[in-house]
Amino acid sequence: MIDKIKEHIAEVEKFTTQAKEDIENFRIKYLGKKGLLNEFFAEFRNVPNEQKKEFGQTINKLKEAAQEKVNALKEALENKAEEKGVYGDLTRPAQPMEIGARHPISLVKNQITDIFSRIGFNVSEGPEIEDDWHNFTALNLPEYHPARDMQDTFFIQTNPDILLRTHTSSVQVRYMENNKPPIRTISPGRVYRNEAISARSHCFFHQIEGLYIDKEVSFADLKQTLQHFTKEMFGKSKIRLRPSYFPFTEPSAEIDVYWGLATETDHKITKGTGWLEIGGCGMVDPNVLTNCGIDPTEYSGFAFGVGIDRIAMLLHQIGDIRLLSENDVRFLEQFKSAL
Ligand code: PHE
Question: Ligand 1: distance of its center to the CA of 260 in Å?
Fold first, then answer.
């Protein structure tokens, strides 16, 4: 009899399953009301006294083994079910993930470069710390030229030849020096001017400048290109070119877009005129072409420059230019949905 119980113990220890019903059947077989254990306990009365001790111990062992086995199998089954819950339920909503935002300056810069790259312009960049030649002299602004005062310049104190570029026109000089026409390039970048900081102006801001040099380029090409740009950028194609002066272009003009007067904001940003100034432009001065190694009798070209900060403020209704450089997360995270 004892041997039979021992066989059962061995069997119980070996038993394994992953099915719920099998565990339950196993439990009923050993631990159920009419199970084997109760049968053995009933047998206890008939066991001779000298065997009672061993018999009792063996049945208890079987009982413990069976109980432990049932618990262990049940736990394994539950763990598996839990795992399934984590990895298996594909209908569960995902954990919300924090997404980043592009800076409004980058957004507008990308938009402008996209528009121009679709009509054959490439992107060129240059250093923010420039020399006098690239920022001024090559652009028809020799030393002591009064127009240098138009752009209050930050000089490097120990070397008056080195300065922080006041416009991205310096990149165009570099580009013309290193590339042959036809040239179609736009140069976005940060520029610096020694100006008082206020809601409307800062000592650094961003420009994007375009340059087009080829044979027989005319003012009409410039106008058409700008019109295409304002149409793509703002959905407005009515522009106005007001005569102006830049040392590096002749003739020169300020670019105005007809913004309209539909809303109160329109009145405010256009000062009641409906027209909004977005930048400067002109036909590249022959002196500049000569300075950069391009023959002005063979080639002509146009250039234009627009302020990225101003356009960003306009499109995103930003009331203070300082917000663009303060990096306040509460401001920056508002551009999450913009592309
Ligand atoms: N560089 C000029 C500025 O910063 C803008 C400009 C660019 C004007 C190209 C004409 C042609 O004011």
Answer: 25
What is the Å distance from ligand 1's center to 14 Cα?
88
Residue nearest atom 4 of ligand 1, based on CA coordinates:
167
Asked if residue 205 has its Cβ within 6 Å of ligand 1, the reply is: no
| 250 marked ligand binding residue | yes
Same-domain pairing of 82 and 109: no
Look at ligand 1, atom 5, and give the residue with the nearest C-alpha. 305
Q: Among 280, 224, 235, which Cα is nearest to 258's?
A: 235
pLDDT in tens, 101-149: 899 999 999 999 999 999 999 999 999 999 999 999 999 988 888 777 7
Residue 209 in contact with ligand 1 by CB distance below 6 A: yes
pLDDT over 60 (residue 86): no
Contacts of residue 265, Cβ cutoff 8 Å, sequence gap at least 6? 317
Q: Are 128 and 192 in contact (CB under 8 A)?
A: yes
Question: How many angstroms separate the CA atoms of 122 and 187, rounded?
Answer: 9
Averaged pLDDT for residues 261-280: 86
Q: Residue 211 pLDDT > 80, yes or no?
A: yes
140: CATH? 3.30.930.10
Same domain for 40 and 120, yes or no, is no
What is the domain extent for residue 19?
2-87
Q: How far apart are CA 216 and CA 225, in angstroms?
A: 15
